[in-house]
Amino acid sequence: MTISMRQARLELLNRGLLDAVESHVATLSRAAQIEWEYLVEVRRDYPLVVELATLLNLSETDLDAFFESAKLI
Q: What does pTM read for this prediction?
């Protein structure tokens, strides 16, 4: 499943999670920060997505719901 970075960020904002994600990304490698900043599409199985889902305590079901909701934006 794939969504745009715009959809991902807006869904994170809608859920009150954007600040936590951006704070975490700031602690990652420069390469990961560049990927977060310039990524066009976000894949459900992308390693950074999996890492962020773990950080946010999102279950597999929660993550699927996140992507489904983001697709509607």
A: 0.89
